[in-house]
Design a protein that fits this description.
By secondary structure, the protein is α/β, with parallel strands linked by helices. It has a domain at 35-159 and 210-297 and 335-341: 3-Layer(aba) Sandwich (Rossmann fold), CATH 3.40.50. The chain has 14 helices and 16 strands. The protein has helices at 3-15, 20-29, 35-38, 51-54, 56-72, 90-98, 105-108, 118-128, 214-228, 273-278, 290-296, 299-307, 312-326, 331-334; strands at 18-19, 79-84, 109-114, 134-136, 147-152, 161-166, 169-178, 181-186, 207-210, 230-239, 248-251, 254-256, 266-268, 271-272, 284-289, 335-341. Helix 5 crosses helix 6 (90-98) and helix 12 packs antiparallel against helix 13 (312-326). It is globular, with a radius of gyration of 21 Å. The structure holds S-adenosyl-L-homocysteine.
């Protein structure tokens, strides 16, 4: 039993089953035992790999996209250049390198990283080196200023609640104890106002997931953009509407039991982009898929340019990274990109 499993089992024995969201919150960010709070999980030696860790091209083309959106909106100065959930800081470092020759962009940008994990903040400081940056705990703390923000694989790392349709109500997925082991169970059925609109597209037994923290975070971001200008680009795996059980646990690049090793495995769920867009109602929202976006932003051309200096295994790896980021059977269509921008300005390049 992991130390966190022991702690959770004692809590459940004392006060009863907990929601899946409460379970995930402790697994991911418990200050002493949480997955992100205690480690750097990325890369071949870690548990999973993300797009910026696969290739520098991901951050480069997104950086140029953001910079062009800043130019299109009349170079607002100063502005917040933010990333939420920055992992190792690789994406922001690639954005900064790709945009350093754009006149005025770096001088106007207040680089801001929103990160909950102290361990990963330290890692991000190392990656960004001497580049000035500030760290915030939450999106609510973002300044009242034009905001250009990127989030990659951030929303999938937020805790979800999971509901199973039962006649005219819903039963919630709970984590309880059976023979002193953590097990899933379902609460008694109850009507749920926030899922009333999902009764018509779900039948008894169907599962719907809700991410309770996402709307407030997105509202905070979209309010800054609607009031002061800017844009947000949110990339993640998921669909327009949540459907089915998408909870998964990953350890050492292998799927594992979500209740098996609390605090030691990464827990994620697909992102419901419709819910994200609804929370940003004062902005215009456009959804495309990752492969389409990266191609429109010129990743094929960038792949060719970088390939000229490569040979042998390095060239093979580079081409494989391009295929992995854009291929329809790899990340190209499973991953979606959602942009928010003020109704008065055009969408960022690649989203029109
Ligand atoms: N964007 C990075 C990392 C994705 S992993 C990449 O693409 O490689 C998720 C990141 O979100 C981690 O940095 C994690 O510590 C952070 N995170 C998770 N929950 C958070 C929260 N509630 N607030 C801020 N950051 C959070």
């Amino acid at each position: 039993m992991t130390p966190l499993a022991d702690l959770l089992a004692r809590r459940i024995a004392a006060t009863g089953p907990i929601t899946l969201a409460d379970y995930m919150a402790d697994c991911l960010l418990h200050p002493d035992h949480g997955y992100y709070a205690t480690r750097d999980p990325f890369g071949a030696a870690g548990d999973f790999t993300t797009a910026p860790e696969i290739s520098q091209m991901f951050g480069e083309v997104l950086g140029l996209c953001i910079a062009q959106a800043w130019l299109d909106q009349g170079t607002p100065t100063p502005f917040t250049l933010a990333e939420i959930g920055p992992g190792r800081g690789t994406l922001m470092a690639d954005v900064l390198r790709a945009t350093r020759r754009i006149p005025g962009f770096h001088a106007a940008a207040q680089v801001t990283l929103i990160e909950a994990s102290v361990t990963l903040r330290d890692r991000q400081r190392v990656t960004l080196g001497t580049h000035p940056a500030q760290w915030l705990d939450t999106a609510d703390a973002l300044p009242a200023a034009p905001l250009f923000l990127i989030a990659n694989e951030f929303f999938d790392a937020l805790p979800i609640r999971q509901f199973t349709r039962d006649a005219a109500g819903w039963r919630e997925c709970m984590v309880g104890l059976t023979d002193a082991r953590l097990t899933f169970g379902l609460s008694a059925p109850a009507p749920l106002a926030r899922l009333q609109h999902r009764l018509h597209d779900n039948r008894p037994g169907d599962i719907v997931e809700v991410c309770p923290a996402a709307p407030a975070i997105n509202t905070a971001i979209a309010q800054r953009i609607a009031t002061h200008g800017g844009a947000a680009i949110i990339i993640d795996y998921g669909n327009w509407r949540s459907k089915g059980n998408t909870l998964q646990a990953l350890r050492a690049h292998t799927f594992t039991d979500p209740l098996g090793e609390p605090g030691l495995a990464d827990l994620t769920a697909h992102v419901d982009f419709q819910a994200l867009a609804a929370a940003a109602a004062f902005c215009r929202a456009t959804l495309t898929d990752q492969g389409t976006l990266l191609h429109r932003l010129g990743i094929a051309h960038r792949t060719e340019t970088l390939a000229r200096a490569l040979h042998g295994a390095a060239l093979e790896n580079h081409l494989a990274a391009y295929r992995r980021l854009t291929g329809p059977s790899e990340m190209g269509t499973l991953f979606k990109a959602l942009a928010f921008h003020p109704g008065t300005s055009q969408p960022p390049p690649g989203f029109d």
